[in-house]
Amino acid sequence: MPPRTASVVLDELTPPPHPHLICEREEQLSVMRRLLGEAMGGNSRIAVVSGAAGHGKTELLAALAEEARRAGAVHLSATASRMERYVPFGVLAQLFRGVELPPAAAGHVAHLLDRALSADAATVQDSVAIPPRLFHQMGTALHDLVKFVERPLLISVDDVEYADTPSLLCLSSLTRRLRATPLLLVLNELPSPRRSSTLLRAELPPEPVCHRVRLPPLSLGGVRELLAARLGPSAAQALDTECLAATGGNPFLVRGLVEDTIAAATEWPAAPVLSAGTLFEQAVLGCLYRCATSVRTIARIMAVLHDPRYVPLLVQLPGTHPQSLNLALSTLEETGLLADGAWRHPDARTAVLHDMTPEARAELHTRIGTLLFKNGAPVTAVAHHLVAASQIDNDCAAAVLLEAAQEGLSTGDTTLATDCLSVAYRYDRSKEHFTATTAMLFRTEWRSDPRTAARRLPSLLEAARCGLLTGRHVSAPVDALLWFGRPNTAVEILEQMERHARLRQDAEASATLRRCRTTLALMYPATAEEGDTAAAGESYVPLAATRGQTLVELERVLRDGPGPLSALCAEQALVSHQLDDDTLIPLVLAVSTLIVNGSYDAAEQWIDSLAAAARSQSAPVWRVLFESLRAKLALHRGEPAEAARLAERALAETPAASWGVHIGLPLTVTLEAYTVLGSPERALAQLQVVPPEGIFQTLLGVCYLRARGNALLASGQSQAALDDFAAVGELATRWQMDVPALLPWRTDAARAHLARGEITRARELATEQSVLVGPGHHEARSLTLRTLAATAPPQERMNLLGQALEAAQKCGNPLELAYTFNALSRCHLDTGQYSKGRMALRRARQLAEQSGVPLPARTPPEAARRPQELAASGTGGETLVGVLSDAEMRVVALAVRGHSNRQIAAKLFVTVSTVEQHLTRVYRKLGIKRRSDLALAVNGEGGPGITTRRAS
C-alpha cells in the first residue's frame, strides 16, 4: 500500500469547493492544471507562482493540490520561514517529514540533517559552504523519496523567497535529473528583484520545464464578484469601485473589508456602506508581515509621514538607502496599500500606526519633523509631527510650534493651534516662552468660549505687570478685561504695558496698545480723555495708520451721530480690515454704523461676509455677534418678529456668561422687538437674563437701558420707565453722545410723561429734542415731531404730523411710517375729516400688517382732550371708520353724546327722517338693535356685528 502523506489525496478532478477563494484566477489555474497534467504524463515540471502578499498564491496552490489529490497524486508541502532562511536543508526537512519513510531511510535522512546543522555548517549563509559530499547525499535521499512514493508527486514550497539555497538547489537538480518523472514542483514567491536572486541561485531549468505564473490584482469585475458572493449583487454593484480604490484589488484586503462590512450591516442607512474594522486591519498587517522587514519599516515611515509630497526626502533618513526605499514603495503599491505614495484607505495607515509602540511612533515623528524642518517644509507640516511626538526638547521646536499655532489661528484651524500650544506649553524653558504660549492659548480658547479662556486671565495680568508680554500678545489681557466689563483695570494694565513697551522699544507692542486704547474709548466712552484718541491716531506707525484713522472716525460717528461721511467711514473700515482678534470690535461697530445710517443692503452683505469669515476661523462667539447684528438689522427694517427670532437664537447658541458686556446687543433687540410686537410680558421676560454690571459703562448698556424703559412703559410701569430714560440721558450727556439719531431718550421720556398725564413736561422734552435732531436724521425727526404732536392742540398737531410724515417717508423704516399714518388718521378723525382719516388708517394698517405689529392705542391725554369725539383710541372706533360712511359717522358721533334725533337733524341741517334712516343703516351694519348699544360698539366693546381687529 502506498504511503500516506500529510496532505489529503483526491480521487477525481472537481471544481474547488469555494470558487470565490480563487476569484479571477481561472487563467492561472488553467496553466497550473496543464502543468499538472504534463507532470502526471511523465514530464517533470516547475511552476514559479509570483504575486504580491494577499494576492491568492496560497489559495491557488490549495486548489491545485485538491485537484492533484483527486487525480491520484501525492502532495508534499513546505513553507519557508524568514527565521530559518539560513538553516541548511530546512525546506527539505519539512518535505521528508511529510512521508512515513522506512526506519532505515528515516534514520539516514535524520543523520544527514544533523550533519547539516553541525557547528561548522550551521553558520553558513551560502550553498558553497555546504560540503559537496553532504550535498550529494541529500540530493540522493530526495531522489529516493520520489521513487519511494511511486505515484505522481506534487511538491510545493510557499514563501520560497525565504527558502534556504541548498534545499532549492536539490529540488532544481531533482527536476533536471528526473525529467521523465511525474513530478510538479510549485514555488510561491513574492515578486522582488532581490528575492529573484534566491531562485537564480537555485539554478532552475528553463522552459518548457520551468514556467512562471503571475497573479495580478483583481479587476473591478473581480472585486465585484467577491463582493457579490457575500453581500449580494446590488450591494456589490454599489460598492465595487470604492472597494477597488481602497484595496487596489488585493483579494485578502477585499475579504477583510467585506467581513467588516457585514459586521456593520445593521448600522447601514438606506444604501450599503463599506466599513473597515478589525478584520481589515488584520489583513493589512498580515500582508505586511509577509513582506520583508525593510518593507515593513518603510510602511511605518509612510504611516507616520502621511504626506506623499515629502517621500523623496526619506532617503535622507539614516539607514534608508534609495534603492531599498524604491523597492519597498513598489512592494507596498503592488500589495494594494499605497497608490502614488498615499495610503489607499485611512484604516490601513491606522493599522500600521497601532502596530507600533508609542515610543517608536514618537521617535519616528521627531525624526521626520526634523527632516522636514531642515528641508524647508512649511511650519504646519513640521508642527504636525512635533505634536504627534507629544514633546519637544529645544527652543527651535518651540518656535516652530508657536509659529504654526499662529498660522492655525489665522486660517481658522483652531485644532492645530490648540495641539501645537498644548505641546509648547509643557516646554517650560523660560518665562517669556511660557507667557507667549499662555497668551496664544487664551486667544485660541477665546474664539469658542471666552468664559473658559478667562481662567488664564490672572496669569496674563501678572505677566503684563511684569513686562513679560511682548509684541501682539499685549492685547490679550486688555481685550478680556474690556469684554467682561472691567475698563478701570484695563486702563491700569494699559499704562503699565505702555511703559514696558517704551523701555523695550517694542514697536509692535506700542502700536497694538494704541489700538487697544482706541477700542477702549469706543466701548467705554467714559475712559476717553479729550484729544487722546486723535493723538493716538496721528502717532501711529505707518503700518497702523490706516487702522488708527478708521477707529478714530468710528468713535467720531458715535459721538456726532450718523452723517454723510459716517457710512463711508464704516465701509472703509470694513474694506480695509480682515476679521481677526484685533479687528472684531471695530468691525462690529462699523456694521452697526451702516445700520444706523440706513445702509441696510450694505450692512446685510457685510454681516453675511463676516459671519462666514467667523465660521471659517472656527470662532462661534464672533459668529453669534454678527448674527445679533443681523437681528438688529431686521428690527431697523421693520421686521420685529424676525429680529426677535434671530436674537433669541444667538442667545441660545452661547452661554450668557460667555457674552460678557456684548450680551447687551441681542438682549436689546429682543426687548425692543417684543415691545413693538405688543408683547410687553415677553419683553419683560428677557430681564431674567442679568447682564454684567460693567455693561452700563458701554453704549450697549445705554441702549439696553432705553429698551428696558420702553418695555416697562408698555407694561404700564411709567415711573420705572422714566428712571431708565433719565439714566440714559445722564450717560449720553456725560459721554458727549447726546445724539437723538442714536439715543432719542427725550421722546421716550415724553411718552412716559404723556402716559402720566404730564403734557407740559412731555412737550418740553419733545421740543428740546426737536432742536437737537441733525439734518438727514429722518427717523429721529419723524419720531420727535410725532411725539410733539401728541402734546399739541388739533391745528398745530395736524401741521406737525404732516412734517413727521414727510420725514417718515424718507427714513426707510416702515414701522415709523405706520405709526405716523396712525397718528395722522386720529387727527383727521378728531377734526371730522373722516375720508382722510379712513385713508390714513388703511395705510397704517397695511404697513403694520406687513411688519406683523399692532398699531399703538391713543394715549390717555389724547383721549381726554376731546371727550365729545368718538373714542377712537379703542379699536371699535377705528373699525367703524372702515364700515360707516361719512354721513353715518357724523350722525353716530352726535348720537353717542346723547343728542336726540331732532337735535342731530338741526345740527347737521338735515331732516329727522334722514337721521332715522342713517341710524337704521348703522344698526344693521353693526348688528345692534337699540341706541344704548351704539356707545358700546363705538368704544370697542363690540356688538354682534363688530370684531376688534389687530394687525398680526
Question: Percent range for helical residues?
Answer: 55-70%
- The pLDDT mean sits at 85
Order of strands, main sheet, comes to 2-3-4-1-5
Q: What is the CA-based Rg, rounded?
A: 46 Å
What is the CA–CA distance across the termini? 105 Å
Q: Profile the largest sheet.
A: 5 strands, parallel
Write the topology of this structure.
Layout: H1 26-40, E1 45-50, H2 57-70, E2 74-79, H3 90-97, H4 103-116, H5 132-149, E3 153-158, H6 165-177, E4 183-189, H7 193-201, E5 210-214, H8 220-231, H9 233-247, H10 251-263, H11 278-290, H12 293-305, H13 322-335, E6 338-339, E7 342-343, H14 346-354, H15 358-374, H16 379-389, H17 395-411, H18 414-426, H19 431-446, H20 450-453, H21 457-465, H22 475-483, H23 487-504, H24 507-523, H25 532-538, H26 542-560, H27 566-576, H28 584-596, H29 600-616, H30 620-636, H31 640-653, H32 656-659, H33 664-676, H34 680-685, H35 699-714, H36 718-734, H37 745-755, H38 759-772, H39 778-789, H40 794-811, H41 814-830, H42 834-851, H43 860-865, H44 875-881, H45 886-895, H46 901-908, H47 912-926, H48 932-938
Parallel strand pairs: 1-4, 1-5, 2-3, 3-4
Antiparallel strand pairs: 6-7
Helix pairs in contact: 1-2, 4-5, 5-6, 8-9, 8-10, 9-10, 10-11, 11-14, 12-13, 12-14, 15-16, 16-17, 16-18, 17-18, 17-19, 18-19, 19-21, 22-23, 22-24, 23-24, 24-26, 25-26, 26-27, 26-28, 27-28, 28-29, 28-30, 29-30, 30-31, 30-33, 31-33, 33-35, 35-36, 35-37, 36-37, 37-38, 38-39, 39-40, 39-41, 40-41, ...
